Amino acid sequence: MSHTARAACVVPGDLPLTAPEATIVVVVLVLAVLLALAGMPALSVLVLLAETTDTGLRLVRRARSRKQAEAEG
After folding, report:
1. What does the pLDDT look like over 9-40, one tens digit per residue?
2. Sign of the C-alpha dihedral, residues 37, 51, 70, 11?
């Protein structure tokens, strides 16, 4: 095996976030932090941040799949 060949078990990962996708995640996290600063208990803040991060990532995946569908069709 040469030094430039890649192993067959290496799978390329997802593409990095684009600017609009990163903006979605940042906006969702900023809103969560603002709500957290409103005086919520620490456990509620952690749950809120986890849920908003999950929501932001789902929005990014949805936007990415919609963009791919438009490119194909």
Report:
1. 655 666 677 788 788 778 877 877 787 788 77
2. positive
Task: Indicate the pTM of the whole model.
Answer: 0.52
Structure tokens at 10: 């290496």
Name the CA radius of gyration of the chain, rounded.
18
34: Cβ contacts below 8 Å, ≥ 6 apart: none
The two tokens of residue 41 are 């208990």
Mean pLDDT, residues 43-54 taken together: 82
Distance, CA of 43 to CA of 70 (rounded, Å)? 41
DSSP 17: P
